[in-house]
Records
---
Amino acid sequence: MTGLYIILGIIVFFVFLFSVRFTVYMDYDKDFKLDVAWGFIKFRILPKKEKPEKPKKPKKEKKPKEKKPKEDVPAEKQDNIIKAFYKNQGFSGVVQLLRDTVNAINGMFGGIFRHFIFRELKLNIIVGEADAHETAVVYGKTCSAVFPAMGLITSTCKVKEYDCEVRTNFCEKERTARFRVVFSIRPIFATNAAIVLAFKLLFKVVFKLLKNKPQPAPAAKPQPAQTNSEKTNKPNNENNIKEDINNERSI
């Protein structure tokens, strides 16, 4: 009985841990900052703190090694949307971040986004080019990329504070983008969605295997055995046919 109580206690403990909100803070205004909080614990993810460089020891001279033929290098793994934005910041990076977010919502794990709660979702973009015509063209392209993406986010997730603004600057050339995003999710919802997705994929694979299973060929039908009367009638019929042919010849 004590073993059962221990197992139940462990299950309750993990359910409690996975029920604590996991919050993400993202700020971008020339510099990108990413903080993560789980309950009362908060720590900085990006930018990473630079470690003090250790004094380098003088290296001994080594003999040059023979060059080996280059082997095929495997393709690099694709970065997640936040890491990709950290590498490519700026105006184009913000627009690409919105496109990647739309692809993620419409992708395989889109069901997880329904459990996201955005406490803040604010975006401010300013577009200015060399002349008014080019400014209007870039402004239209920017609006066609920004507003549908923000509309999809607000219709899929729960959003409390929302502000999205795209402005033009006809006086000087300028392309700036800044945002403030704070969203949270309970890990238990993410794990439940992942389990449901895994079962769906499993059932699809099993269904395809059963559907494409080769069916056995139909068995040949046994022909009816000939009776003795049919066997005896065959030579009689042949003799009658020969007699008819001889009578026709004689006539």
---
Amino acid sequence: MKITVIGAGYVGLVASACLADMGNDVICIDNNIEKLKLLEKGIIPIYEPGLDELVKVNLREKRLVFSSDIDNAVKVSKVCFIAVGTPQREDGSADLQYVFQVAKQIAKASNGYKVIVDKSTVPVGTAEKVTAIIKKNSAHPFDVVSNPEFLKQGNAVEDFLYPDRIIIGSNSDKAIKIMQDIYTPFFKTINRLIIMDIKSAEMTKYAANSFLATKISFMNEIANLCEKVGADAEMVRIGISTDSRIGNKFLFPGLGYGGSCFPKDVKALIKIASESGCEMKIIKAADDINKKQRQLFIDKITKKFGKNLKGKTFGVWGLAFKPKTNCMREAPSITIINTLLNMGAKIKAYDPKATDTAKLYFGNKITYSNNSYEALEMADAMLLLTEWNEFSKPDMKKIKKLLKYPIIFDGRNQYNAQHLKKMGFCYIQIGKR
């Protein structure tokens, strides 16, 4: 099938490569010419495991093409995916100007029946607005479909190629049949393609992400209580996660959630509810707890070193909001590092993939190390902020020699507390006294 994906950002690029890998002819559209030049050479502007190889293979096989010519792409395609950004406004709502702009461009370029797919995360009612824009600017038949993405950064290619489920929001049998044709190859053993009305599909994405964000905040709140009463949050986590009704995902206490989805979608859902006269008390609490979690980690540091940190240096492991990505949007490291800098501290940091991204946030205010151990040389303490695999089994004897004081603040509960204490470390975790 001939498919156009408009937007070569995170979602659009993954979708384009994966759809092409299933044998479709895909044109990925973007208006950033410099980005397109890099993509045409197989150079990927984001770090996502497996994506670079997928792009290179499908470029070579000519199933994937990058272009800025949206008019031609729409004319030769039956299906047009809208995968542009929906950035968060100051009031928490989603900015849909790019979605509406693309809808108008599709309408004006249409030369026959088209399926227009909202792949971007958009609030309830967006499909109706897109429909109105297309009707105003085109006389050709079309259907608008809601097809929200559920991609986890660091695992997006796997998520797209082997999905838990695919949501299709449409009332058109014709459009549903076309979407089924696109997605059937992604289900090898069982069909998990779920058909529903458009508004329910639009709501599903926000509901899913807000639920997972709430689960994270719930575990963090339990962990904070564990610290106060002397319980072990890790034991509690195991105790509740083995209940099949609860499960073990998104139940690890730490520094809270970040990234491009959870913070934005939680705030957007709160805004949608407010505009509808509905108060989201649980979701609001999840958002508040998430902000508080970073401050609690900072409080652990100031409890040990005081609030005047002038002359103190901290070695930071991890800057990305999670492993396997270079994304730092809403990353806990931003809040924590900026607060420590404002208190007079110096920061030496290392991240396997996010150093270039970090320079956009911190500039020359911190020192960027070439490896994890270099970041700890003569530091007063180590801060573990992102649980990259390479941080899971470090040489603790070496760490102790490098640090001025054997102190580790672990925001991800990576290490064996008893072992470190026997070695003479002061080891401070989340959810443990």
---
Amino acid sequence: MMDDQKTTGRIFDIQRYSLHDGRGIRTIVFLKGCVLRCRWCCNPESQRYEIETMQTPDGVKTVGQDVTVDEVLQTVERDRGYYRRSGGGITLSGGESLCQPQFALALLRESKRRGLSTAIESMGCAPWETIEEMLPYIDQYLLDIKHTDEEKHRLFTGKSNALMKENAQKIARSGRTELTVRVPVIPSFNATEEEIADIARFADGLPKAKALHLLPYHRLGQDKYGWLQREYTMADVLPPKEEHMRALLAAAQKNCSLPCQIGG
């Protein structure tokens, strides 16, 4: 087996001191590449695996860097003291980190070998064998469930949700990781009480799932589309108001026995 520390992958950012992507204070490693093209994506620079350039107001920025597992963990391990006091650790995100399965597995496995808590933000959009191999090294699985309707999911993301729903069931039944369902709440896509109730019922049917988090849509990534010379098709969509989010939370709680919250 190849030395995990030397395994190479492609990332576009490492964010330290995160409080919203798993338990405690965490360092998020953002991997390049995604199989979906969600209209609202706040990290459009994550979607393509290729190294890109963005023309930002501060000049040209290169997006994408090839690194080894050891190089990533040198940054992650700077904050061991914070992890120890808060219960935090490393979180893999993207893009979809399952699109780089060898690198993601090596990073998770080496993190556990070094005694780090691990989490992954993922849509579960990969062959089950890919996920199954990683599960022993994932403490928390933050699973995106965007919609229960296959055609609407395809219309807004470019892909069916069938594989993701199937993998969600398998991850939950495995009992090998703490599973939290996270729902990006997107007006015009899934921000009705009926749609959130459907997702809540689906989440409620996942064995041993721990929680359901509703994540309000925001437009913080909108400028990046222009920097990449791409169109942002959600420019006219406004973030949901607090009152609307509270109504959606009530709909989720009515249809789900899991702890439900806004944000997370």
